[in-house]
Amino acid sequence: MKVILRQNTEGLGQIGEVVDVKDGFARNFLIPRKLAYVALAGNIKALEEEKKTLSKKREQELAAAETLAAELERVSVTIPVQVGEEDRIFGSVTTQMISDALKEKGNEIDKRKIEIDEPIKALGIYSVSIKLHPSVSAKIKVWVVRE
């Protein structure tokens, strides 16, 4: 049976390819999981439309991420922490603390998107990157100060 792939499927092919698979594999696995369509003329047109809308959506997400990255480049956050001897902080500054500080400034960023290169365990100024999109990231300055 000839089917058109709707998603990249390992071992079969890429989106939009017409592949020949066994009837049972297509009817029982690929089609119910919406991984493929039966290769008919109408389905080929539907897949082309789906590709167009998906590419438009990706372009919009990329543009939004680039705008947010430009906005975040100008932001710096201050995180007050308790310190002990020799200005060593108790614990470390976490991504949740940075996310909360950004939320107070009006930028709601998920803590899982914040990437800290090495643990922040001392007072000072640090550069932290935020992964907004697979191809877009922004750097913000984090000021760690005494409480």
Concise summary:
35% of the residues lie in helices and 33% in strands. The longest helix has 33 residues.
Describe the fold and architecture:
The chain is an alpha+beta fold. The chain has two domains: 2-63, Ribosomal protein L9, N-terminal domain (Ribosomal Protein L9, domain 1), CATH 3.40.5.10; 69-146, Ribosomal protein L9, C-terminal domain (Ribosomal Protein L9, domain 2), CATH 3.10.430. 35% of the residues lie in helices and 33% in strands. Strands 4-9-8-6 form a four-stranded mixed beta sheet. A three-stranded antiparallel beta sheet has the order 2-1-3, with helices on one face. The termini are far apart. The model has no long low-confidence stretch (mean pLDDT 91).
**Helix fraction?**
25-40%
Written as H for each helix and E for each strand, in order along the chain, the element string is EEHEHEEHEEEE
Write down the Rg: 24 Å
Number of strands: 9
Strand content: 25-35%
Distance between the termini: 68 Å
Widest sheet: strand ordering: 4-9-8-6
Q: Considering the protein shown, what is the CATH homologous superfamily of the largest domain? A: Ribosomal protein L9, C-terminal domain
The number of helical segments is 3
